[in-house]
Design goal:
Elements: H1 14-30, H2 35-47, H3 51-64, H4 69-81, H5 85-98, H6 103-115, H7 119-132, H8 137-149, H9 153-166, H10 171-184, H11 187-201, H12 206-219
Helix pairs in contact: 1-2, 2-3, 2-4, 3-4, 4-5, 4-6, 5-6, 6-7, 6-8, 7-8, 8-9, 8-10, 9-10, 10-11, 11-12
Length: 223
């Protein structure tokens, strides 16, 4: 599974991040002891996929501000994208210890647990993130996928439906719910979800096309 599915989609364009890095670099040259500039440059590097550089900047921010929970959290995200789940979980643990109400840290730890196959712990962390922020859609998404991978399709269905109720434009929720409905044998509901996904995204993924053909054939009346 694509690691990006469990995190919000970045909305800024490439040039914005490159300009930001240039600006923060100049600021650091003028005042190398200001943690926020390292933190912000780390975020820009992370958004560009330069995870090692992001980790270096977050680490420097942490050296300057050891109680900065969000710096630990964001360094954990960079480790996550590198597939270093052990360090990702460690940083999430530190962030949670510093700020037990930081929903993103529970979400991030849950995502790491998900990718090492510990769905039970992932679900517990997603639960906590949602308790803190009941509109944290990406945690409903992660939890729904974890439920689905655990074979708990009813709870998965509920999570994807909750996302759609909160944001009807959240395109991936239609895809995920369509898949769950397919496995539950709810073919009409699955087709409706895939059509909505196609309407919002522009085209179906190849596996979805196969599912649609199979379901439409199954729903055709017998001659």
């Amino acid at each position: 599974m694509d690691r990006n599915l469990l995190f919000p989609i970045e909305s800024r364009i490439l040039g914005d991040y490159e300009s930001a890095i240039s600006d923060y670099t100049r600021a650091i040259e003028l005042d190398p002891g200001f943690a926020t500039d390292y933190y912000n440059r780390g975020n820009a590097y992370r958004s560009l996929g330069e995870y090692e550089l992001a980790i270096s900047d977050f680490s420097r921010a942490i050296e300057l501000e050891p109680l900065n929970a969000t710096a630990y959290n964001n360094r954990g995200i960079a480790y996550y994208y590198l597939g270093d789940y052990e360090n990702a979980i460690s940083d999430s643990n530190r962030a949670i210890k510093l700020d037990p109400k930081l929903a993103a840290a529970y979400h991030n730890r849950g995502a790491s647990y998900f990718f090492i196959g510990n769905y039970e712990k992932a679900i517990l962390d997603y639960n906590r993130a949602i308790e803190i922020d009941p509109k944290y859609l990406v945690s409903y998404h992660g939890r729904g996928i974890a439920y689905g991978n655990s074979g708990d399709y009813e709870h998965a269905l509920a999570d994807f439906s909750r996302i759609i109720a909160l944001n009807s434009q959240y395109v991936l929720a239609y895809r995920e719910r369509g898949v769950v409905n397919y496995f539950l044998g709810n073919y009409e509901e699955s087709l409706a979800d895939f059509r909505m996904y196609e309407q919002l995204d522009g085209q179906l993924m190849p596996f979805m096309v196969e599912y649609v053909e199979e379901m439409e054939a199954a729903l055709e009346p017998n001659p």
